[in-house]
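lol ok so funny story. i was supposed to be doing the assay writeup but got distracted and ended up predicting the structure for this chain instead. priorities right. anyway since i did it might as well share w the group, maybe its usefull for someone
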Amino acid sequence: MLTRRCGFLFTTTGRPCGNRVGEDAPWCRAGHPCAPVSALDDAVPGAPSARESRNDPRARRSGTAPFRRDADIVQRATALVRRALSSDDAELHGTRADHILGDEGAALMLLGSPAASEPARAGVVQRFGLVGALLVVGFEERWRGCTTHGGAPRGVLHRGHKGAVALVDTLVRDFPKLDQRQLERLLRQLERCAGTGHEDEVARAHRMLHATYALAARDGTDRAHRAYLRALDRVLRLVGPLVIP
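and the output, tada:
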């Protein structure tokens, strides 16, 4: 029985989604988690499946292309970076990313659930950069997998999904032990899934920068910080002529 409407707010217009949903449904037909707006804090959730898109008469009438889940994951991570950079310093207010990620159950609730903590999400992104944003998206996808597959917390995504969804789940699982080369490879694979992958020198330099930034924050060693500074210097040398008159 449809008894309420989805309260997800679109970040571009500020308007609510408005799709009717059942009392106990965790998601509306557009893929938005149906928690109160105050709990969601305009977070960007998952997207409708291809089956939902095919069954939507509006999509058939308008000829809308099927939703690209892989591209959406990268877009969600990019949006999280923008929001985190405009937020208060989470660590200054006592929110520490390493404490959040150290407890998988707490991280799943604080980062991936419809009632996720915005300071916790911002803290992870601020600490680990783009890699941190992908970690948050990975926990969102894990939560979606848990609600879809009866609450199984691990392994669901690998059995049921491929592409970028499986890659961000791999990042969540293996982040504590990934080295620089493995992390750069994973970032390249995610870009390819989203259709944005490039193999020129600038793209490789940016992947190295994202990877070394996250590893310097994770490990805190002199070696990791030197690798990050070398990557930063490389990017500045490459893009400098493009931005300096």
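Residues 35-67, 152-160 have pLDDT under 50 and may be disordered. Residues 118-148 form the longest helix (31 residues).
back to the writeup now i swear
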